[in-house]
Design goal:
The protein is of the alpha+beta class. It is built from 5 helices and 6 strands, in the order H-H-E-H-H-E-H-E-E-E-E. A hairpin with a 2-residue loop joins strand 4 and strand 5.
Amino acid sequence: GSPTCKDRVYAEIENRLSNMSRVAKSRWKNEKRVTSLISTYCTCFSKKRDSLPLWSEYGNKSKGVAIGFDKNLLDGFSSINPFNSRSGSVIYDEDKQQEYIESIANSICEKIEEKVEPTGIEVDPAYLLKYPFVKDASFCNEAEYRLVLNEGLTSKATQSTGGGFVVRGVYYRAIDDNIIPYYELDFSQVS
């Protein structure tokens, strides 16, 4: 398959490392290690009300149902915690993707090159929320809108709210002999 947004950002940063200080290189190495421990969760929607290709791919052999959501309400998802949640449209256009990837890489490089005392996590891990918004152009017919959440927003014993959304801790389900973690989203308080 094609490289992910994360792969492309990492490659962009790796290309720039030769011109960076030893401290910046060390910070980047630490950043990759620390952020590899953070899981990101994603819920996908389509802006298309009714699409035969989407029904064919995701409609459980036409046994599924379609549930409509107001995009303006979904935009409120980011208010749960702007450092751990984000909502937005997927980018399919290659030129826009490249601009997006370069902006993420620029932001990370600026942080790891700052002349400050190391604190453990050098870069705000909120940039991890940006990775799920890039997808190969061959999927543009899906016209996706996504809600993305970084691990750590909530634990099983607690819940977080914002914009009327209630997010409950990590749960697990089994699909095709795999254990899949997920967060439960409660839309009942969204108005």
